[in-house]
Amino acid sequence: MPTGFVGRRADGEKIYLVEANKTTKVRDVRWGDFLNILDQTPDGWSKIKWGAENRFIRTEHIVAKRPVELIFLDVGQGDGCIYVSAETGADERIMIVDAGVADNMYRFLNWRFGKFRNDFRFHAAIVTHPDQDHYKGFQPVFNHRKVGFDRVYHNGIAERTGSQPLGPSDATGRLLTDIIVTDNAMRTLYADPAVRGRKLYPKLMHTALTSQRVGAIEMLSTKHGKKQGGKTWVPEFAPTDGRSTTIEVLGPVPEGTVAKPRLRWFGKTIGSTGKDDGKTKNGHSVILRMTVGNLRVLFGGDLNRPAEDYLLRHYSGIAAGQPLSKAVAAASARLGADVMKCCHHGASDVTDEFIEAVHPFAYVVSSGDEESHAHPRPDLLGRLGKLGRGNAPLILCTEILRSTREKGREEDFKKLADLDETVDTLPAGPEKTAAKKARKALQDHIRRRNVGVYGAITVRSYGEDMEISFRLEAPRGKQLWQVYALHHDAVHGWVLAGEDGH
Q1: Which end of the chain is more exposed for a tag (fewer CB within 10 A), N or C?
Q2: pLDDT at 439 over 50
Q3: pLDDT at res. 449
């Protein structure tokens, strides 16, 4: 069966699938959507297989090349992004950058890639740092017997049991010294059950190490990756690799040597010498800058004030005593981007100078419900708008733009009705008590998951054009997607070419 992808109309108008009469619209499709082509007719239409139905699309709207795709998935609390290359076939590369805390990433991947009916191999999993809301969602993915990865990348900090959960420090107490660089080092560390204990990060890595479906597990940093042109790149994504995308590694920035790197402790405040496990793990997130033609996307991990201070000074060369404002212009050459995955889910513990150095026209904030951090912080959203590029920067939040209802809710309410009847009819005793307990658990489940978690913010681009889209909460006629179309020109940079609706 021949395949293709939805193209873009020259006039910027939406493209719709239609019924066999060629006039009745069924739904809109987006640039880059995959098409299974059943037949092409002389009158300029193509019949395609869309789900269980046959639909029609104008043949002129089908192209052979797909755009690079980034799916910032609504994983609830945490981060999760899927990268799909423009290349197809043997040259295709699919990577997952973080996976949230629950099974939302697993369920989406299972749906997107055919319910893993056959063996499916991803190119890489990138665990930006060992916080549960970034790595725990990989556990069901790594557990699946038909899913594999060529590589797993991490930031070098390997949690373990004991009084030093991030490992030992040097004599000054300023630097972490047991940084795990190689696959062999990770295997040696986590081969000991006493080191793993009941901690979830060691469990995840041990699953990958022993699954026989995962390739090398290695550190990714400015010292560890593919060196080229004085910069460090994700292996296979350097400029000379000839791919549609380059991906530079901007953090963590280790001290010491390549063989024996050190990562500094970050305190609760800038310049603090006190040790803070959370600040240090977050501050040494794997930071990536992806480039597709004229489009640059920065993945900001869970950076915080002391980490941003460190990175701004590193990339600008200004001394510790100089005001951070002097770092912005020089650091922007390395940190500047058009789209920014916001640091730490919209926390306010970030510097204005870092936002100014990135200076994006669009932000993606990945945040979730039922968390005590009030992410995204209202004051942070105001700062993003003030410091972003242009008069009206786009601020897109997975939590706010979530749109689809949880599948299976009808079954949940049927079960609840059955439990209500059981509780009403049973006499007092253990069975009635158990039924009441089950009913309360289901009620809590329905309340917690009243809104689904398949919402996503999608960025697609060839490098000259770009579309940012998300699903509408309710259809607008036959339109299901809100789309922002942008075009890049040499004079104005990225310009909003069109927006659906109001």
Answers
A1: C
A2: yes
A3: 44
CA pair distance 304, 285, nearest whole angstrom: 10
The answer to whether the CB of 83 falls within 8 A of the CB of 115 is no
Residue 67: which region, alpha, beta or left (left: phi > 0; alpha: psi -120 to 50)?
Answer: beta
| Residues 57 and 107 both lie in one domain | no
- Verify that 364 and 437 share a domain, yes or no: no
Q: Can you give the residue range of the structural domain that contains 418?
A: 409-448
Note whether 22 and 51 are same-domain residues. Answer: yes
pLDDT value of residue 76: 79
Peptide bond into 239 cis (omega under 30): no
Whether 58 and 185 map to the same domain: the answer is no
Q: Residue 456 falls within a domain, yes or no? A: no
**Same-domain status, 389 and 431:** no
Q: Is the pLDDT of residue 28 over 70?
A: yes
Of the candidates 396, 405, 377, 413, the one whose C-alpha atom is nearest the C-alpha of residue 72 is 396
Residue in this structure with the two tokens 């899927």, named with its chain if needed: 82
Report if residue 474 sits inside a domain: yes
Q: How far apart are CA 236 and CA 93, in angstroms?
A: 10
282 in any annotated domain: yes
Q: Determine contact, residues 134/79, Cβ cutoff 8 Å.
A: yes
Count: domains in the chain: 3
> What digits encode the pLDDT tens for the residues 320-365?
889 999 999 999 999 999 999 988 766 778 899 999 999 999 999 8
User: DSSP strand E in 59-200: where?
Assistant: 62-63, 68-73, 80-84, 94-99, 120-126, 147-154, 175-176
**Are residues 213 and 72 both part of a single domain?**
yes
Of 224, 215, 143, 141, the closest CA to residue 180 belongs to 224
Instruction: State whether 347 and 471 are in the same domain.
Output: no
Q: pTM of the full predicted structure? A: 0.88
Exposed, middle or buried: residue 109 (CB in 10 Å: 0-12, 13-18, 19+)? buried
Which pLDDT score is estimated for 440?
85
Is residue 274 within 8 Å of residue 268, measured between CB atoms? yes
pLDDT at 502: 42
480 and 430 share one domain: no
The per-residue pLDDT for 406 is: 47
- Tell me whether residue 459 is in a domain: no
Asked if 54 and 48 touch (Cβ cutoff 8 Å), the reply is yes
Instruction: State yes or no: pLDDT of 48 exceeds 50.
Output: yes
Residue 37 bridge partners (DSSP): 48
The span from the CA of 248 to the CA of 238, in Å, is: 7
